[in-house]
Amino acid sequence: MAFPSKKELERVRKKLAKAEPTYALPLNATQVEKLKFLLCREMISYLLSKKITQNKFAERLDIDPARVSEIVKYKIDLFTVDRLLTLVEKLNPTIKITMA
Among candidates 41, 47, 50, 48, which has minimal Cα distance to 63? Predict the structure, then answer.
């Protein structure tokens, strides 16, 4: 596999410069933040395993596609635990959530 060309690297840099980051969980995260993060991760795992678009995923959850984008970027401060758990249960009604 060859190293990407200068033109390709520039194209990717421009695209990434406009991209919104995915948020990380802080080291001092609360239990609520950890639970929200875990619920978002569960939905992202589902999205990736089913190989569907974010728009199709939004339809499946009956939410706006912009909300899916927020979930995928782990914008946990925009959601309550109740809301995230309700969405996860739509995907897997028998899910068991545990925290260590």
Answer: 47
